[in-house]
Design brief:
It is flat and about 90 Å long. Strand 6 and strand 7 form a beta hairpin. The protein is mainly alpha-helical and 411 residues long.
Length: 411
């Protein structure tokens, strides 16, 4: 903050500390105070970590969210909350002995009217985290090291071990069964559930030994709080791809789209021109004020220090106005669409086909995101797709495309 003030010609004076950044001694004092403050902060952090580690070594709860099934007693530490403990034991028994999955456990708890401490329905991620938490067998975990805790175990070591063996067998993690390359599904990031407005992500299952990819609503998957259907991924992706190619080939349709877009953009021009005119008037007014200060200084009617202060303020204001004007002019330039170019559309189809046939999954996703604004799934049979107008930079050959890492979750 001090550097920013100095750049803009502002000095810092303190009424409680003996420093003034207008001179060298004040700057030195400020730097020394900063060094001591940083040292004090680092010391506090180090002591806090040492104290927490000692608490963990002694088997005491080190802080954070109190695990479900326990409550924090100021004198005794973690003590059992019997009402919650019953639910936790039920989770472990259902998973380890009944061989029911995390989703089935959530469904049964939610249907029975049980809720977590926040009053929300149980989600599979929370259940999986609890099944892995060693606090329930009387352990305290600190920095991945386990210590014997002072609190009473909620489940037996045998039951806990059995549950985690089942976890390992099923390869379940907090993200579910996932594709670790992160690039399988092409519409992740732009596809949403129209019912609950949550993102949808790529998942998959097996039917008669054949892998079936699909898109699933994240709210349904995590919280079981949406009734959106699973949507077959390859069918939806193929439909969107064919739709794009059909639009590019339909010159009359693209001409109508272009005309409608130009009509809407032209409607914005008057207000934009008005804004540019307002900014230009403020620029002229600010420049005139600077000129008056300079004239007063040259005439000897204004002290140099005051003149410098006023001019610096006005220059900063002038820079802000110029930046605003450049932004408005760039917006005005974007309002002018070129005429529909038949060659551009044909080239777009050719390049689109080439990328979708030869490109990697990250390249295909990058291309689709340039042409598809969003995909809203109402149900398995009704999907709403919003497209964006193509331009010469919208499609590129695979050799010229920089792959974008896929980050979608998976089931």
């Amino acid at each position: 903050m001090v550097d920013e003030l100095t750049k803009n010609g502002v000095t810092l004076k303190s009424i409680t500390e003996p420093f003034d950044t207008a001179n060298a001694a004040g700057k030195m004092m400020l730097q020394m105070l900063g060094v001591f403050a940083e040292f004090e902060h680092a010391t506090i952090v180090e002591r806090t970590k040492v104290g927490m580690e000692k608490k963990a070594e002694g088997g005491n709860f080190v802080g954070g969210n109190v695990p479900y099934g326990y409550q924090l007693n100021p004198e005794k530490g973690l003590v059992l909350n019997e009402e919650e403990a019953l639910i936790v034991r039920k989770m472990f028994k259902m998973y380890a002995l009944g061989k029911e999955g995390a989703s089935a456990i959530c469904n049964e708890l939610n249907e029975a009217g049980h809720r977590n401490r926040n009053g929300r329905k149980w989600g599979r991620r929370v259940v999986l985290y609890m099944l892995k938490n060693p606090v329930y067998v009387g352990k305290i975990r600190w920095r991945e090291v386990l210590y014997e805790g002072q609190h009473e175990p909620l489940v037996s070591e045998v039951l806990f071990q059995k549950a985690n063996e089942v976890l390992q067998e099923r390869h379940e993690d907090l993200k579910g069964r996932q594709w670790h390359n992160g690039d399988e599904r092409l519409l992740t990031g732009i596809i949403k559930c129209a019912r609950c407005k949550s993102h949808m992500f790529g998942g998959g299952g097996y039917k008669k030994g054949v892998h079936v990819p699909y898109y699933v609503c994240s709210k349904r998957f995590n919280d079981h709080d949406c009734e959106q259907e699973y949507v077959r991924a390859e069918l939806l992706e193929a439909a969107v791809t064919e739709d794009i190619k059909a639009m590019f080939r339909d010159e009359q349709f693209m001409a109508r789209v272009w005309a409608e877009a130009n009509q809407r953009l032209c409607a914005e021009k008057p207000s934009l021109e008005k804004e540019i005119g307002r900014v230009e008037a403020q620029v002229a007014k600010t420049q005139a004020a600077m000129d008056r200060y300079f004239e007063a200084f040259e005439a000897g009617n204004l002290k140099p220090e005051l003149c410098s202060e006023k001019v610096l303020d006005l220059r900063a204001r002038l820079e802000e106005l110029e930046a605003e004007k450049r932004d408005l002019e760039a917006r005005r330039k974007r309002l002018d669409l070129p005429e529909v170019d038949r060659e551009l559309l044909l080239a777009a189809v050719d390049e689109f086909d080439k990328v979708m046939a030869e490109g990697t999954n990250p390249q295909k996703k990058d291309l689709l995101r340039r042409l598809v604004k969003k995909v809203l799934v109402h149900d398995r049979r009704t999907v709403e797709v919003w497209y964006e107008l193509p331009n010469q930079a919208s499609v590129r050959t695979p050799g010229n495309m920089a792959p974008r890492a896929g980050l979608e979750p998976a089931a």
